[in-house]
């Protein structure tokens, strides 16, 4: 009978069982944290339309635009951009925060822009 009693007592004192239980608890906590991060409204990859600017204002600036399933990358060449055009008018910000556009002579009347 002594031999049977030793076999029964060995299972209750096994330290590996408590380590396995701790690992299970940590896996559940990690899974819950991953689900919380994935469902966060701050997560930029959960939205349908996202624009990310990396290294703004530097020579290696990159703009990443996600529109649904389409992903576009735009990289700066480091050169100053220039183009051709003409001054179309002047915009003024009023005290209430609204913008008023005053076109150059020869164009139509003024427009208020919010």
TrEMBL record:
<dbReference type="Pfam" id="PF09919">
    <property type="entry name" value="DUF2149"/>
</dbReference>
<dbReference type="InterPro" id="IPR018676">
    <property type="entry name" value="DUF2149"/>
</dbReference>
<keyword id="KW-0472">Membrane</keyword>
<keyword id="KW-0812">Transmembrane</keyword>
<feature type="transmembrane region" description="Helical">
    <location>
        <begin position="16"/>
        <end position="38"/>
    </location>
</feature>
<protein>
    <submittedName>
        <fullName>DUF2149 domain-containing protein</fullName>
    </submittedName>
</protein>
<keyword id="KW-1133">Transmembrane helix</keyword>
């Amino acid at each position: 009978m002594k031999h049977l009693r030793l076999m029964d007592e060995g299972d209750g004192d096994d330290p590996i069982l408590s380590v396995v239980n701790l690992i299970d608890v940590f896996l559940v906590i990690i899974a819950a944290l991953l689900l919380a991060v994935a469902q966060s409204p701050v997560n930029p990859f959960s939205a349908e339309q996202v624009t990310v600017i990396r290294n703004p204002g530097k020579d290696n600036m990159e703009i990443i635009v996600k529109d649904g399933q389409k992903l576009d990358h735009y990289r700066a060449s480091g050169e100053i951009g220039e183009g051709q055009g003409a001054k179309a008018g002047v915009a003024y910000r009023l005290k209430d925060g609204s913008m008023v556009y005053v076109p150059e002579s020869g164009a139509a009347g003024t427009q208020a822009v919010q």
